[in-house]
Amino acid sequence: MLNTESQYRLVFCTNSDIQLTTLLNGLNNIGFIGKTVFGSNAEQEYCVGDSFLQSLTFMGCSPYVEFEPPAQLKPDGVADFCFIRILAAKQSSTLYHAEQLDNLKTIPRCKHCRKVIGGWAEQATALNTSNHWQLNCPSCGDGLTQDDLDWRKASGSGNLFIDIVNVYLQEAVPTDAFLQQLEMISSSPWQYFYTKSNIKTKLLDRQ
Fold first, then answer.
1. Would you tell me how many other CB atoms lie within 10 Å of the CB of residue 76?
2. Are 169 and 194 in contact (CB under 8 A)?
3. How many other β-carbons are positioned within 10 Å of the β-carbon of residue 44?
4. For position 175, what pLDDT does the model report?
5. Which residues of the chain have pLDDT under 50?
6. Fewer beta carbons within 10 Å, N or C terminal of the chain?
7. In degrees rounded to 5, what are phi and psi of residue 161?
8. Radius of gyration of the chain from Cα atoms?
């Protein structure tokens, strides 16, 4: 797996019963992903597909994004080009930042009443040690799970993640048509956010 520590990325996430192979076939059919980076499906790392630039709107006057991997690229090497990584968790509602909340400065809001979660710094410790964290909203009293937190495009949770690596924060925005395509492929809505943190891969092995 390529080294992507501290690299910016745009991440899509959802909770769905879809099989990973079905998702990959769907992404390939719409031209979002292309060939595998190393000629193997083992790590689910792909070059961008022919329709990638029609799926995202890049902001700014003339952003420069490199899409082709260097000829001497090796596994575990630093990836300085834009590529796509597909991650599947073995359980639902894995929080992308689960063990990196010290790097997450955004305070989430309750999706029910839209109020910020007071005392978030204290609550983060529990979320950092348990993937089954739950809290009652201090404003409306509703029970909250990870899916009930609005991170305002700073984090997200799910059992499937699509990482667009080497896209700067807020540099690219998915089109409505692409989000609709994702929903049709997986029969579930997708969220997206921006980050410079890796998901902790050991979370993907938790039952």
1. 8
2. yes
3. 20
4. 96
5. 98, 201-207
6. C
7. -135, 135
8. 17
Instruction: Name residues whose C-beta falls within 8 Å of residue 103's C-beta, 6 or more positions apart in sequence.
Output: 97, 197
Token pair for 21? 């192979």
Q: How far apart are the first and last CA of the chain?
A: 22
State the pLDDT at residue 204. Answer: 38
- Residue 28 is encoded by which pair of tokens? 């390939």
Tokens 């690299």 found at: 7
For residue 200 the two structure tokens come to 């902790």
**Structural contact between residues 154 and 195, judged by C-beta atoms closer than 8 angstroms:** yes
What is the total residue count of the chain?
A: 207
Residues 6 or more apart from 194 whose CB is under 8 A from it? Answer: 8, 9, 10, 11, 153, 154, 167, 169, 170
Quick one: pLDDT at residue 56? 94
Apex CA 81: angle with CA 104 and CA 50, to 5°?
110
Q: What is the pLDDT of residue 57?
A: 92
